């Protein structure tokens, strides 16, 4: 399949997953199209990165861990903590991928910028986060911000993917721990899969 065909397949599957999540089609279809969309992203990534096998391997690991997180979050209450752990490990895998060929935190400005963003998000969410989840959420946010900051030193696709991941998770967190957002499923999932596709696209064909 060509890149345009993969992109069309991901968009179609993502649209059906979002429609299922918003109740526009049977909600049971979310259990099909949500993991399917991430599987399509994995299929897209699998064909790329032969020139950088170490980065390729760790991005694949990150995508597979993201798939595990997607499945866990199909049960938003019981699966929240397992999903958080799966995505935490995915971000660690992406950090390893983005340090292949470059030192961690070699560029300080993105880390300073994302530290401000992470601190602001945590400050706004803090009152609504249950006590038992505050520690895991802080660790997750620090890891996510570090991933996005490191991605900024890799290239445009990775940098934008990291930034969109921050946007997606911030929207998810505000919807869960703050005020419910209108069309939350649309914005959270659209930015999430766009982030994953851009991270996959950071691998060369």
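^ Assign residues to that structure.
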């Amino acid at each position: 399949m060509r890149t345009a065909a993969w992109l069309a397949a991901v968009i179609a599957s993502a649209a059906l997953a979002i429609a299922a999540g918003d109740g526009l089609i049977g909600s049971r279809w979310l259990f099909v199209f949500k993991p399917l969309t991430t599987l399509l992203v994995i299929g897209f990534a699998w064909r790329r990165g032969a020139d950088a096998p170490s980065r390729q391997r760790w991005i694949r690991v990150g995508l597979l861990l993201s798939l595990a997180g997607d499945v866990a979050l199909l049960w938003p209450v019981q699966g929240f903590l397992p999903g958080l752990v799966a995505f935490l490990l995915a971000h660690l895998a992406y950090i390893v991928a983005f340090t292949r060929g470059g030192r961690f935190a070699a560029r300080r400005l993105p880390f300073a910028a994302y530290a401000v963003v992470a601190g602001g998000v945590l400050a706004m969410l803090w009152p609504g986060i249950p006590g038992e989840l505050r520690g895991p959420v802080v660790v997750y946010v620090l890891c996510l911000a570090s991933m996005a900051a490191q991605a900024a030193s890799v290239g445009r696709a990775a940098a934008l993917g990291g930034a969109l991941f921050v946007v997606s998770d911030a929207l998810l967190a505000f919807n869960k721990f703050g005020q419910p957002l209108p069309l939350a499923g649309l914005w959270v999932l659209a930015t999430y899969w766009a982030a994953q596709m851009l991270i996959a696209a950071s691998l060369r064909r």
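The mean pLDDT is 93.
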